[in-house]
Amino acid sequence: MCGIVGYIGYREAYPIVIKGLKRLEYRGYDSAGVMLYDGDNIKLSKTKGKVVDLEAKAANEISTNGTIGIGHTRWATHGVPNDVNSHPHVSNSGDLVIIHNGIIENYAPLKIELIKRGYVFHSDTDTEVLVNLIEEVQKKENLKLGKAVQVALNQVFGAYAIAVFDRKNPDEIVVARLGSPLAIGIGEGEYFIASDASPFIEYTSNAVYLEDGEMANIRLHKPMKVRKIKDDSLVDPYIQELQMNLEQIEKGGYDHFMLKEIYEQPSVITDTYRGRLHANEGIIQMSGVEDNLEKFLNAERIIIVACGTSWHAGLVAEYIFEEFTRIPVEVEYASEFRYRNPIINRKDVVIAISQSGETADTMAAIKLAKEKGAFVYGVCNVVGSSISRETHAGSHTHAGPEIGVASTKAFTTQITVLIMMALRLAKAKGTLSKTDFHRYLQELEIIPEKVKEALETDAKAKEIAAIFKNTQNCLYLGRGYNFPVALEGALKLKEISYIHAEGYPAAEMKHGPIALIDEHMPVIVIAPKQGHYDKIVSNIQEIKSRSGIIIAVVTKGDTQVRGLADYIIEIPETSDALSPLITTIPLQLLSYHIAVMRGCNVDQPRNLAKSVTVE
Ligand code: F6R
Question: What does this protein do, in the record's words (predicted)?
């Protein structure tokens, strides 16, 4: 995790680095730091806390002029969040300065070796070891910075995106990546470095995303040189035109990114199916699926790998794919899959789902599946991300940047892509009747309207939030397609409001969780008219008989659950398979309002980061 930013050019670097760090805070926000070079001096300021704390400290500590700068926002791995462990880290001579996103796994033996050679360490970080290793290599072999970085990186294991500055050669920044993302923005007489392109989109739309195992020497007024870290071979960098715009990464009048992203769902679901769904013609066209249709049609099994919210979208997809295509589906936590020697066959299709496209466990699961000969399909949001490049083929979700740490629009757009894939395959396999196929296409086309209608539950969600904001526990129940929605609702609540919440299949309640029910326990039941309505009504009765408090998400016009529940939230009707796109909306809003009322930092919940690039 962690976000890195750098600038080398003719403008003042400090405002670019600070603004960039703010945009990257989703990647970590427990400490931050900046280094500036003004032609004579290295100026360093770093602190525990957020980028605003850094700004306050830097204003008193350093003069902020200089046209070269690097900055870091941290999610601690080695060493607690404090001023000393914050990046940038400086080598013992004071000449080399580094920022690093990732983990150097063999830092301990390297540190012992360096200590034997007289190096002194001030922090507990692996990064301080790396910068001193580079210095040691540089001194011993009398190398320029780029070469020294390369030799040092060939001695380390782990993951990194780094930027290194050398006072002795101050018109250059050397960057490298393995396992952590790194984008380089190319302007006229200036370069930008960042973990993603958001820090520099207002300056340039040309970017190079370094591939794993590549490094670049970025020099003022010189073309950038990219080479392979391992064998020094030169690489012709691919300059990509960025699709992001500034508006997408700003709050646009909302109090929080999370709320903005919840409200964006009608439009981003439309973006997701635009050009792919042609309801009137009865066509679904997704180039990734089309180009690999035989692989999908011959699949004996689909294995879905993902983490967190993306895993919940995978669970929804399991129900959809099995019902629509009759292909057996397994859904795996990427972190478990990668370590349990899973059985993977050449006829398996693996679908990896990831908003960021950078999640380390999902990436490792993909590599494992590829090694074992499976065809791997990515469903990612971030274009150019590591996962979208590592997979054989894939479909982007087109949700636009998701900045709130809690995933919202990523979930619904992932489900949209997965539904379209299942429908396309069902058509090819003939496993859905023509009537059902056309009905789903028509329904999917009007889903954004229904999501818009579901957003009208906002006031009701707020009212209920005010009543339950101080609860300590919460149970979420759903059946069938809405069981994963129950899990997702519970995850949203716990991660942003720190209230303990559990999601369960409603019928499983009587095998244990029912013991938790008493007059203090709010139970959120997802009970739309389609699906297993009668069964869920029975579950509601079981809870009522034990004095539980029922908050029910029901279809507009419902009377039966209305008579039983303490609070109801009404949503528009849709078919069972598409209902997660609707039922999830009031649950997102409920969590959001509870977290705001509890004074929690909604967009940056404690201990979390948006992009989990460590195991
Ligand atoms: C929850 C959340 C996380 C992510 C998980 C996977 O709101 O955001 O659980 O879903 O870390 O991230 P991606 O989808 O980027 O692979």
Answer: Catalyzes the first step in hexosamine metabolism, converting fructose-6P into glucosamine-6P using glutamine as a nitrogen source.
Question: What value does the mean pLDDT take over residues 331-338?
Answer: 94
CA 256 centroid distance within chain: 17
Ligand 1, CB cutoff 6 Å, lining residues: 307-310, 354-356, 359, 362, 406-407, 491, 495, 612
Q: What is the CATH number of domain 251-432?
A: 3.40.50.10490
Q: Encode pLDDT of 58-103 as tens digits.
A: 999 999 999 999 999 998 877 888 999 999 999 999 999 999 999 8
pLDDT of residue 513: 84
Task: Measure 249 CA to ligand 1 centroid, in angstroms.
Answer: 18
pLDDT digits (tens, 9 = 90+) for 274-320: 999 999 999 999 999 999 999 999 999 999 999 999 999 999 999 99
What residue owns the CA closest to ligand 1's atom 5? 308
- pLDDT for res 510: 85
27, 256, 305, 309: residue to mutate for ligand 1 pocket, most atoms within 8 A of CB: 309
Minimum-distance ligand 1 atom for the alpha carbon of 414 = 14
Residues 34 and 99 sit within 8 Å (Cβ to Cβ): no
Per-domain residue ranges of the chain: 3-248, 251-432, 455-601
CATH class of 3-248: alpha beta
State the DSSP H helix or E strand holding residue 551, giving kind and residue range, or none if neither: strand 549-555
Cα–Cα dist 501/545, whole Å: 21
Give residue 445's pLDDT band: very low, low, confident or very high (50, 70, 90): very high
Which one of 1, 310, 312, 411 would you pick to mutate in the ligand 1 pocket, going by the greatest count of ligand atoms within 8 A of its CB? 310
**Residue 612: pLDDT band with limits 50, 70, 90:** confident
pLDDT in tens, 149-162: 999 999 999 889 99
2 is catalytic: yes
Distance 311 CA to ligand 1 centre (A): 8
List 103's β-bridge partners, or say none.
159
- Cα of 260 to ligand 1 centre, how many Å? 18
Beta-strand relationship, 89-90 and 301-306: unpaired
CATH architecture of 455-601: 3-Layer(aba) Sandwich (3.40)
Q: What is the pLDDT of residues 164-197, one digit of tens each?
A: 999 999 999 999 999 888 999 999 999 999 999 9
Ligand 1 atom at minimum distance from 387 CA:
16
Of 161, 77, 153, residue with least CA distance to 385 = 161
Ligand 1 atom with the smallest distance to the CA of 408 is: 7
The residue from 2, 307, 380, 474 that is catalytic is 2
In sequence order, the 6+-apart residues with CB closer than 8 A to the CB of 47 are 31, 32, 33, 53, 54, 57, 83, 86
Domain 251-432 and domain 455-601, same fold? Reply is yes
